[in-house]
Write a structure and sequence with these properties.
mainly alpha; 3 helices; 9% strand
């Protein structure tokens, strides 16, 4: 359990992590344990401009996958 004095440090660590995440050349999206988008880096937004309007925190994985497939942002799965 963290104390209130740890909160600014945790915020700094999270901010530094997101800075590194955004500096990656690869497109990456980070989802939480509930399958909700936490962050999509700039490279992912550049790779899939048709999806940039939905890449907001809280987006559910299934909605992302559905929209990505239907908007032509990603290839349709083959069976």
């Amino acid at each position: 359990m963290s104390s209130k004095s740890d909160s600014p440090r945790q915020a700094d660590v999270i901010s530094a992590f997101l800075d590194v995440f955004d500096a990656l050349d690869q497109g990456v999206a980070l989802f939480d344990e509930d399958a909700k988008l936490i962050h999509a880096n700039a490279s992912l937004r550049r790779m899939y401009p048709a999806l940039s309007d939905i890449l907001v925190p809280g987006l559910r994985w299934n909605i992302f996958l559905n929209d990505a497939t239907h908007r032509g942002g990603m290839p349709r799965p083959t069976s």
